[in-house]
Design a protein that fits this description.
six-stranded antiparallel β-sheet; G protein-coupled receptor 108; Jelly Rolls; transmembrane helix; Rhopdopsin 7-helix transmembrane proteins; 2 domains; alpha+beta; about 575 residues; seven-stranded antiparallel β-sheet; 14 helices; single chain; GOST_TM
Length: about 575
């Protein structure tokens, strides 16, 4: 247990360090000297009238870079996919840079923003954009035709500083009507129509406008660009926003770049993605169900308190910790939806309870698998090694989960910790199966040697059931549920979390039922002394004491019960 205490202290220290950069659905990512050819900024499910704000600041390149941006473009790609992880174009897996695509391989919306630092412009290329609306600053330079028409009145305008003969002046004053008409026309144009025209130029209907040049601002050696997009009814779905530097895609020297980007996504109801909107209500409901199950379990323990072991109370603590963790998880999602970020105090409470829940889960499963407190009170050396491996790995897995939750998706360490979490979690799931296998093997040997085959066979049957339960739980929550998530539409991906929580509840209930502290539970009927067994056989065979009940002491010595000696 000392290992667990040290692990929890380290996890708590890392927790406080990690929470400082958590931004939830209002993202701010800063990359310095980055060399990746593609940076995954975010994935978000938009309903109709959802909005996306992207503000790129401080985009810098090395001063000695000589890159042909027509063949190796730089910019953003915004693509829609039906499910998470499935891009709307297949070029991501090929040697073709997505920014060079001229058409989409399917009907999914794909919007490209190509940054040209030489001309200080951003070319927007909308491929199957449907009814999305883009609001951005167009390039200030006007076409030549419009420039000449605007300059013509300036050239023909009379110069008031030039002396005019008196008779000509009188002639002009006699016919003032054309001048007043011109003044009225000039006075009426700039007021409302020009403002309306300016708004129309900034609002781009991507269903009609497929290509447009936007403005790119330059301050010192850095470039700035921003846009705002409103998702239409036909274009709603799961979108993936990425930054591409196509020069680094091929082999050769990787050119570094730096930038800071702020991304804010919203749906009509708040800041949560489409698949996350029901999660707050889901978690609070499941917290109530787990709390009710924990209370039923405590009532069962109090009813059979003389045959309760320490591990039964550990199972109760696990159920209450799970319920508390779900409550804090629900509160976190509520604040993310309303404010766009978590409240640090609630986030800390959730991460602490999540850490305790994960540690208690694997410790409890491993202890049940070894038969500790049920059959024996001393763990063997190889069983102790399992705990020395599982407990630190479980702490590491929870720390990885906390870092993933509080780190921006575009950072380089995000996917590293994600892979660590997946690998460590699989190792822990595999490690807890070893004690169950050892117990099954031990019971198989004992059933053929100690003369108490019936009792050991009952235990063997129970352990086999427990082994199948653990394997099914691991496969469903780690593999099958993820496959279901990939195949579901974007607005139904919350069902993945629902299936995981329901399967966890079923697993807890079945485990509690199999190892309940009841007198008719074959797993808790420990081997008796040989004299007791012989006496039972004599009493059973003889009819002299028929109808008489004898009081027998149970294996743990804390409960006395009557059994019929028929």
């Amino acid at each position: 247990m000392a290992v667990a205490q040290r692990g929890c202290v380290v996890a708590g220290y890392l927790l406080l360090l990690v929470l400082t950069g958590c931004k939830a659905r209002i993202h701010k990512l800063t990359l310095e000297n980055e060399t990746r050819f593609a940076v995954d900024l975010n994935n978000f499910g938009f309903f109709a009238n959802g909005t996306l704000d992207v503000n790129l600041t401080s985009l810098r390149f090395q001063s000695d870079q000589s890159v042909n941006y027509s063949t190796h473009p730089v910019g953003f790609s915004l693509s829609r996919s039906r499910v998470n992880g499935v891009l709307s174009y297949t070029a991501e897996e090929t040697e073709v840079c997505p920014l060079t695509l001229k058409e989409s391989t399917n009907d999914e919306p794909l919007i490209l923003f190509l940054i040209d630092v030489n001309n200080l412009s951003v070319t927007m290329n909308a491929i199957s954009a449907k009814d999305n609306i883009l609001i951005a600053k167009p390039k200030a330079e006007a076409p030549k035709g419009q420039r000449k028409t605007r300059e013509a009145p300036e050239e023909n305008k009379p110069n008031t500083n030039i002396d005019v003969p008196h008779n000509e002046m009188n002639q002009k004053t006699k016919n003032p009507e054309p001048v007043t008409e011109k003044k009225d026309a000039d006075a009426n144009v700039p007021k409302v129509p020009v403002e309306a025209k300016k708004v129309e130029e900034n609002k781009i209907y991507l269903e009609k406008t497929k290509k447009m040049t936007l403005a790119l601002d330059k301050i010192n050696d850095s470039y700035n660009f921003s846009f705002h997009m409103v998702v239409g009814l036909l274009a709603q779905g799961l979108y993936s926003l990425k930054f591409h530097y196509c020069k680094n895609r091929g082999p050769g020297v990787k050119l570094p770049y730096s930038f800071t980007v702020e991304v804010t996504e919203r749906n009509p109801g708040g800041y949560l993605s489409a698949a996350e909107i029901p999660l707050s209500r889901l978690y609070i409901c499941m917290a109530g169900v787990f709390f009710f199950a924990a209370m039923v379990w405590v009532y069962t323990l109090m009813k059979h308190r003389y045959s309760v072991f320490k591990i039964h109370w550990l199972m109760a603590a696990l159920a209450f910790t799970k319920s508390t963790s779900l409550v804090f998880h629900s509160i976190n999602y509520h604040f993310i939806n309303t404010k766009g970020h978590t409240i640090e105090g609630w986030a800390v409470m959730y991460y602490i309870t999540h850490l305790l829940k994960g540690a208690l889960l694997f410790i409890t499963l491993a202890l049940i698998g070894t038969g500790w407190a049920f059959v024996k009170y001393i763990l063997s050396d190889k069983e102790k090694k399992i705990f020395m491996i599982v407990i630190p790995l479980q702490v590491l897995a929870n720390v990885a989960y906390i870092i993933i939750e509080s780190t921006e998706e575009g950072s380089s360490e995000y996917y590293l910790w994600k892979e660590i979490l997946f690998l460590v979690d699989l190792i822990c799931c595999g490690a807890i199966l070893f004690p169950v296998v050892w117990s099954i093997r031990h019971l198989q040997e004992a059933s053929s040697t100690d003369g108490k085959a019936a009792m050991n066979l009952e235990k063997l049957k129970l352990f086999r059931h427990y082994y199948v339960m653990i394997v099914c739980y691991i496969y469903f929550t780690r593999i099958i549920a993820i496959l279901l998530k990939v195949t579901m539409p974007f607005q139904w991906q919350w069902c993945y979390e629902f299936l995981v929580e329901v399967s966890t509840l079923i697993f807890f209930v079945l485990t509690g039922y199999k190892f309940r502290p009841a007198s008719n539970n074959p797993y808790l009927q420990l081997p008796q002394d040989e004299e007791d067994v012989e006496m039972d056989e004599v009493v059973t065979e003889s009819g002299a004491l028929e109808g008489i009940s004898k009081v027998k002491k149970t294996s743990n010595g804390r409960e006395r019960q009557k059994e019929s000696t028929l």
